[in-house]
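>> received
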Amino acid sequence: MKKYLLLFLFIGILTQSCKKNDDNPIIEEEVVEEEEIIEEDVDIQVQDFLWQTLNAYYFWQADVPVLSDDRFATQVEYETFLKANPDPENFLLDELIFSEDRFTFYSDDYKELANFVAGVSKSNGLEFGLARIGDSDDVFGFVEYIVKNSDASTKDIKRGDFFIGVNGTRLNVNNYIDLLFGDSDTYTLNMADVENNTISENGKEVTLTKQEGLVEDPILVNTILNIGDRRIGYLMYNFFTLDSGDALNQVFADFKNQNITDLVLDLRYNPGGRGSTAVILASLIHGSNTDQLFFKTTYNAKIEAQFEPGELENNFVSTTGTANGGMNAMLNSLNLNQLYVLATGASASASELILVGLEPYLDVVHIGTTTVGKNQGSILFVDDPENGNFYDPERTNQINPDNQWGLQPIVSQVENSAGFSDYADGLIPRH
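>> returned
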């Protein structure tokens, strides 16, 4: 069970006591004993972890009454509340999540979330989109790109190809989830051609197998196009991973050495990722102006109270840093005054931050469609109270073995140097 669409108040769990009724002690004693047995069967470790984490860090903590610091007068009242919600997922969705929250996600296996954030997955390497065929319930797929060094990269399938069925069964709105995202690691695509606005099966079949631990290189394409007197650098970047800063710097070193005149940044399939990597990319584009603000982060009132003025401001940087083994190399900045960005309805979070954060400093030309509208950040939390529940890959042996849940709630909101943060409905393209 999972859902994927950035002060620790500790409350101990106490055993609830019950009063006896002196008027009918025998009957009351039997009832109390039954109630106590029922309560003992309710394991509330996950519920406790979810409430504690959101009470401490959730961006909308003040907007969810049940997460209020003074919501429970006693430990017993708190425990009773948790036990009244025996299903952790329903508890999270029905009681704790703010109505306007579109992006908090979770899993009952934190490793899945950690791998997802790091760009590691069980995948065949085929990235595709789906669409209805006209007004019918039939569905077809179209290949967006192929992940490097994946099973799909060894097969006769490429970007722009179409498929209309799986294992000989035509895709429709009722079966595509089972056929494409089911338990089977291997499936065969029935490929198709599009002619005269009609899609039809062409007899070609492509069999793909998912592989465990596929690590996607977020830099899918980087090249230089010579068009007239212009030398255009093109970078297709698909995920802001923590460890890709040095690789991006090497790409920009080539762009700089080749004296490009323009840059096209393709973020069409980029859902976001690390804000720190977005800072590096923005600095490679604009320049290492460490006295200029790229974006400011806001948190809930409890978190913000712990910071000094200016500590939540994120300026441009001059090096790749040392995070996750970074080389702390000087950036090969291009110091551009114009940037072309390809962004669509699949571009979110850190991708949108690039457009918004650079807007006050250079001419950002957004080409494509309206973006997702995620002006927020999230962090992965696990049941590790001694570390404030923050996920640390070096502390996995400290995570509660009886609770393997991972929670990635919205903890912050961003705004650019001009104070702009109102793009929850997405960023509208210029072209």
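>> Residues 46 and 403 are 6 Å apart (CA to CA).
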